[in-house]
């Protein structure tokens, strides 16, 4: 397993030492620790905010939001363009912090910084293309004008697995629309959020508009802020179970809500697929962020005619994946976020093997420090295995086989989730036919990484409500209003 160069480690430590808003280790009980999943080392303490503190931040943001809503679109656009520039100027620092708190390989973390900054640039441009229109009232005697207004004070709850991109994907459209936000990052990965928001403020966004609340009591935070009638928007990325509870809280004051929830992504390889493209695309769909992604390929279905060749080539490619400390050059697979995540993967693999799956690669956690689990391949996974119906969230590929496309589609849709799906084939008609029948919010055709800032990201069924990214993402932070303009008789 690769280890980092000492100079890389020193540079990363320097980035951590300069983080804003962090407390030294001896501050007292109202803080919590953030750990490095690659080593178990303590990285920092951050404030463990109370419910009263969250309400204080809500008040600050609400007051600032009223002035921000009155600014011109050009002013908001120029400010977000300045943010984009500053974020990229600090790419290395942001990537180092992200890598240390989540274990994402450094090259991948730098890619996330660009992806996150691209959301800021996109909404800096998108807000200058407002919706609205003019139409005659069909009854005559009036003209209907439609316009869009900021929805108001927004609560943004982000996950740990993409700690920068999931923040900017929410806060950029909120600011673009004219809204203030209270932001709660995941307790496992608050450092990237703290640094991102600090840099945004230095680029010109009023700090009062972006209030970060770090806490280990997510339930108390949600119950408190969503009981406040000043909150008009909730954006959440996380599990379906938590999303269901948040929707119940949001219903108290009819809060506009958008949610990206759990996934169980099917990946279908048809027998006419380009083998090399399908293998590489499946590896990317499986191993991005170590498999710790809601859109990761979860159930891999391969048609009988190509199955043996695919499994051999895929297993060989997964065996070449370099695992190690995420700061080390060339590392493709870092640690899992926690020891609990590692233990859960081991249990899923063991259960699948007991039920008849063939273990082709990996399968057991590494001993020693850090939360490392190797790239793993299971073939002939039966439907009775727990892994066949569970969001894996790790580098374990569960492969099963099918005879006809109809069988694959039926199995793919046999889930309460519907976030992402994938299909690999060299025939356009077959690709579109399968994609049309998949019950998912997005489909990657011959690609393992379909996400784009210009595309509406979100799920169907129990994978969520609303969309993030694209123009639809801006609309989530706006309300449509119309004016009926009467016309006098001529």
Q: How are the SSEs ordered, and which strands pair?
A:
Elements (H helix, E strand, L loop, with lengths): L5 H12 L13 E5 L6 E6 L3 H19 L3 H17 L1 H12 L3 H21 L6 E4 L5 E9 L3 E4 L7 H13 L3 E4 L6 H12 L7 E3 L5 H8 L7 E5 L2 H11 L5 E5 L4 E5 L5 H13 L9 E7 H16 L19 H16 L3 E4 L14 E4 L16 E7 L2 H8 L7 E5 L3 H10 L4 E4 L18 E2 L4 H6 L2 E9 L4
Parallel strand pairs: 5-6, 5-8, 6-7, 8-9, 10-11, 10-15, 11-14, 13-14, 15-16
Antiparallel strand pairs: 1-2, 3-4, 4-18, 9-17, 12-13
Cα shape: globular
First-residue to last-residue Cα separation: 83 Å
How are the strands of the biggest sheet laid out side by side?
Answer: 12-13-14-11-10-15-16
**Beta-strand percentage range:** 15-25%
Mean pLDDT: 94
Describe the structure.
- The protein has 2 domains: 6-261 and 464-479, Aldehyde Dehydrogenase, Chain A, domain 1 (3-Layer(aba) Sandwich); 265-452, Aldehyde Dehydrogenase, Chain A, domain 2, CATH 3.40.309.10.
- Helices cover 40% and strands 19% of the residues.
- It has 15 helices and 18 strands.
- The strands form 4 sheets. It has a 7-stranded mixed sheet with strand order 12-13-14-11-10-15-16, with helices on both faces. Strands 7-6-5-8-9-17 form a 6-stranded mixed sheet, with helices on both faces.
- It has 490 residues and is α/β, with parallel strands linked by helices.
